[in-house]
Amino acid sequence: MFVIMAYDVNVGRVNRVLKIGRRYLNWVQNSLLEGELTKAQLERLKADVKKVIDKEEDSVVFYVLRRQQYMERQIMGQDKGGVSLVI
Predict the structure, then answer these.
(1) Which CATH number do you get for residue 53?
(2) Among positive and negative, which fits the CA dihedral 7, 9, 15, 21?
(3) Quick check: is 63 in a domain?
């Protein structure tokens, strides 16, 4: 499944949430990551994020699509992130 993760968290937790997100997804731009995950990977990602955020102050949104082919991505301005492969 294709997952988009957007987050708005306290500045003290931003780096930790980003670090967790980048273990599973590709960074697109500030507070936004995306990528292909299995159901198990998505559940692990959610569990890891849940340990870091403050539910009273922070917000994390996951958009889950069956396949990336059903999504059209349109960019205005600078393309900050993109897909990076580590070899």
Answers:
(1) 3.30.70.240
(2) negative
(3) yes
